[in-house]
């Protein structure tokens, strides 16, 4: 997406110099800097990615279940709990 932003002249010069030195485009440098800033912000407010633990097992794969369909997942879990 194309957009226009206003930057301090000294900051823009510094970014352009960094982009030249690293062989990147100005857009790439700005995008990477913003992504880094947002990632640090998310970590500081407790929004770290969820880490899931996986184990080897003999679970059944239900190919007919859409993982984006929470109702279907809940229904399946209720069926499994009722059979134990």
Description:
55% of the residues lie in helices and 0% in strands. By secondary structure, the chain is mostly helical. The protein has a domain at 9-44. 0% of the residues are buried.
CA radius of gyration is 23 Å
Assign the structural class, choosing from mainly alpha, mainly beta, alpha/beta, alpha+beta, or little secondary structure: mainly alpha
Mean pLDDT: 80
Number of helices: 3
H/E topology pattern: HHH
Helical content, roughly?
40-55%
Strand content: under 5%
Low-confidence stretches: none
What's the count of strands?
A: 0
Report the end-to-end length measured between terminal Cα atoms: 53 Å
Largest sheet, in brief, is:
none
Q: Outline, from the CA principal axes? A: elongated
Quick summary of this structure?
The chain is an all-alpha fold. Helices cover 55% and strands 0% of the residues. The longest helix has 19 residues.
Strands, helices and their partners?
Layout (H helix, E strand, L loop, with lengths): L8 H14 L3 H19 L25 H13 L2
């Amino acid at each position: 997406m194309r957009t226009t932003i206003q930057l301090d002249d000294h900051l823009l010069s510094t970014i352009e110099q960094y982009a030249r030195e690293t062989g990147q485009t100005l857009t790439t440098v700005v995008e990477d800097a913003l992504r880094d800033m947002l990632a640090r912000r998310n970590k500081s407010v407790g929004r770290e990615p969820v880490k899931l633990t996986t184990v080897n097992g003999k679970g059944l794969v239900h190919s007919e279940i859409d993982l984006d369909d929470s109702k279907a997942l809940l229904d399946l879990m209720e069926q499994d709990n009722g059979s134990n």
